[in-house]
Write the structure tokens for this entry.
Amino acid sequence: MEEVSIGEFARRSRLSLKALRLYDERGVLVPSRVDQASGYRYYDTAQLDEARLVVMMRQLQLPLAAIKELLACDPADAAERIAAHWREVESVHDARRELADYLVSRLSGKKPVMYEVATREMPERSLLCLKRNVDEQGQWAFGKEFIAIMRERPVPKIEGRAGATFCIQWGWVSADSDGPVEWCTPVPKAEARALAERYPELTLRTEPAHGEVFVPLPADWGLVQWQLAIESMQAWEQEHEDEDERLALTPEDLGMRITYLATEPATYPDCDFALPFVLER
């Protein structure tokens, strides 16, 4: 193969000098040789194929860190990872289309298609909880941390949805807002204090009895489905108001929540989005 200057490599690859320097700094596309005296970069023409792959992967909006990993992978493994990435991109696109359709219908004066809303009564419960401020990037790792604790030291199961693990968002979680978020597992009231001693990192508290409105979520749900679920429940709230009593959703008191599987093995939908409510007379 032939060794060429960075300028010639830029011309052949159609990448700018700025891009090549960036890819070098990030370890994505490293020169075959750097002159120690001048610091000038040289590339092997065999690297042109990698350069073309980098260009195509960037067009798929893959981050440079991911591209670096993919270039080091076996080609078959890299192909599967790219296919998985694209499936995720298409899923997000489909979800955004659903939100766009909702907004178009609403702003056009049409009645948007809503999710089906149901209600349930939740009893007073003893909860073992872990609460933390996390942003959008950290919330999944936080959930895995809590689940790992529960698997390492399992608690007695409570049957039904009232015994399911759930996650409360006390505030919006995004790139700009960090919740806070609280993970909770219901435990038998008679054993609550003894169980709490086994989990010094968790907090024991009692949640009062309350009603919940909820929407089953699909297995591949995301923030778009979350927003549409909220809109559906708020529309449901308005439809069920009357002169004698008013149904009021109370996320500020008991928090917006995702309730996960109550039983195993998993069935779908495996979780639902819920908002507590009270009747104001």
